Amino acid sequence: MRKIGSYLRPFIFLIAIIVLSSAGRKEQITVQPPVKTPNVILILMDDMGYGDLECYGGFPYHTPNINKLAAEGMRFTNFYVAQATCSASRSAILTGCYPNRIGIDGALSPISEIALNPDEQTIASLLKDKGYKTGMLGKWHLGQRPPFLPLHYGFDEFTGLPYSHDYWPVNYDGNPSTDMKGKARWPVLRLLEGDTPGKEIKTLDDAATLTSLYTNKAVDFINRNKKNPFFLYLAHAMPHVPLAASAKFKGKSNEGLFGDVMQEIDWSIGEIMKALDANGLSNNTIVIFTSDNGPWLTFGNHAGSTGGFREGKGTAWEGGVRVPFIIRWPSQINSGTICNNMVASMDLLPTIINSCGAKQPVKKIDGVDITPLLKQVPAANPRDEFVYYYDRCSLKGIRKGQWVLTFPCMSQTYKKVTAIGHDGWPGKYASDSVRLGLYDLRTDPGETLDVKDKYPEIVKQLSVIADRYRNEIGDDLTKIKGTEIRPAAKVTEFQKSPNKE
After folding, report:
1. 422 carries an active-site annotation
2. Does 3.30.1120.10 match the CATH number of domain 388-488?
3. Across the chain, how many H-helices and E-strands are there?
4. Which residue from 447, 449, 446, 412 is spatially nearest to 308, judged by alpha carbons?
5. Cα(398)–Cα(25) distance, rounded to whole angstroms?
6. How many CB atoms are closer than 10 A to CB 377?
7. What are the residue ranges of CATH 3.40.720.10 in the chain?
8. What pTM was computed for the model?
9. Residue limits of the Sulfatase N-terminal domain (predicted)?
10. For 39-383, which CATH superfamily applies?
């Protein structure tokens, strides 16, 4: 037995080595460094329509950097903003709520009596609690003075304008306005650094510096925070009127001022992507590119394109609320993918927050996590309903699946010739009476053929769902006050007084 044991001793030793080394390898495999939380860059254009990009069928100017962004990520064809106007749309993006749930509507002017309530949690505040560095550049439009500026909603730093750059005492031709019932009533427009007013924006040449200014500061923010997880919200001023392009782009597109502006925007996206590459951040940075609403068609050749959808900004039709949406995250999203599922701007908050491992808001929101769509989970469909609100709180339509049901109301329209302007001047606004109607977006994306008589059961189904939204978040058309709404902040008399410097 001793002899046999001596023969076996080398084999036992060898087995022991194998077991020990395997155990070491097992420990090496299981003890992985934690997955690094992603950076997030949210780029929001102003009044850019569904048909304004080459990758969405736009022409004849070129947007190669945005094309590349789409080719390296996922492009959505059914993305909706909450309302087709500036402040309401932006509040939905940052809070994950329909604007009327949180008391926001329209476009807040320099003398508006309301602002986004600081009690609402935003993408910035939730990520800041997670340890993110947070920055905002560009147009805020959710409150014009402290304490209703970005630093009070979770942003560590801010450079930009408190509202749209057409709220200034300058006429459509770029000269100072003398109409005290018109633009002359607005205060001097100043850039803000945090809460502090700075440089005046008083000419079209000044406005032409905004795209480059925000781009350069975006690159600087990325460079400074490359070792920290960060959230950057870049809300460009363009292509909202008054259009303005810098000297290096003006006249270069051969497609008018709108083409020049779009090509400068495309340059901006390219600079941001180069900064991510240079800092080794591209693979784990979520880049989102979208718009706050459809084109302001009343400005004619200074407006963009809806890509064939009905009407535009200021309406509850597809042209007003369906916009481009591109998301790129190389480590998680397959390149060159297209998603045809319905998604809304309220969905950005829960999706970003979950992706970054932060805590969701305490109060009720309307957004849903669209991660299953990003990962192309078969049969995933996190959102199958969307309601079209406009004015203060008027429920003008509802979509479920391929169907859109419109409710009787009055709507702004661009169909009349007088509604279209030229070379920076707006046309006259016109209105149209909307009837109860049912449209099949699969076969009629332009909403031209009312088929309610052929599908009464669909009308009934959508009407029942609409009543649920009316009871929860209200409807001025049927005089229903929602049971689950929260108030906007009230701006004091001092804060709402324009600064006539």
Report:
1. no
2. yes
3. 12, 20
4. 446
5. 57
6. 11
7. 39-383
8. 0.92
9. 38-354
10. Alkaline Phosphatase, subunit A (3.40.720.10)
Catalytic pick from 55, 62, 86, 356?
A: 86
Of residues 453, 426, 428, the one with CA closest to residue 439: 453
* Element containing residue 207 per DSSP (H, E): helix 204-207
Longest CA span, the chain: 113
Q: Which of 331, 477, 463 is nearest to 403 (CA)?
A: 463
Give the pair of three-digit tokens for residue 294: 């459809």
pLDDT by residue for the chain (501 residues), tens only, comes to 444 444 444 444 444 444 444 444 433 333 334 457 999 999 999 999 999 999 999 989 999 999 999 999 999 999 999 999 999 999 999 999 999 999 999 999 999 999 999 999 999 999 999 999 999 999 999 999 999 999 999 999 999 999 999 999 999 999 999 999 999 999 999 999 999 999 999 999 999 999 999 999 999 999 999 999 999 999 999 999 999 999 999 999 999 999 999 999 999 999 999 999 999 999 999 999 999 999 999 999 999 999 999 999 999 999 999 999 999 999 999 999 999 999 999 999 999 999 999 999 999 999 999 999 999 999 999 999 999 999 999 999 999 999 999 999 999 999 887 889 999 999 998 999 999 999 999 999 999 999 999 999 999 999 999 999 999 999 999 999 999 999 999 997 445 444 433
Give start-end residues of each CATH 3.30.1120.10 domain in the chain: 388-488
Q: Six-digit token pair at 216?
A: 């350069």
Whether 141 is a known active-site residue: answer yes
Identity of the amino acid at 473: I
- The torsion defined by the Cα of 97, 101, 106 and 109, in degrees rounded to 10, comes to -90
Both tokens assigned to 449: 């053929």
Q: Are 316 and 397 in contact (CB under 8 A)?
A: yes
Both structure tokens of 279:
């800092």
Tell me the DSSP string of 384-414: -EEEEEETTTEEEEEEETTEEEE-SEEEEES
Cα dihedral 335, 40, 91, 46 sign? negative
Work out whether the CA dihedral 270, 271, 276, 277 comes out positive or negative: positive
Query: Both tokens of residue 500?
Result: 């006539």
Q: Which of 141, 165, 240, 302 is catalytic?
A: 141
Say how many residues make up the chain.
501
Tell me the CA distances in angstroms from 284 to 88, 165, 172, 276, 324, one per residue in order.
30, 34, 43, 10, 22
- Token pair, residue 348, equals 């950005």
**Across the strands, what pairs with 136?**
158, 233
Could you tell me the two tokens for 25? 């390898």
Report residue 358 as tokens. Answer: 């932060």
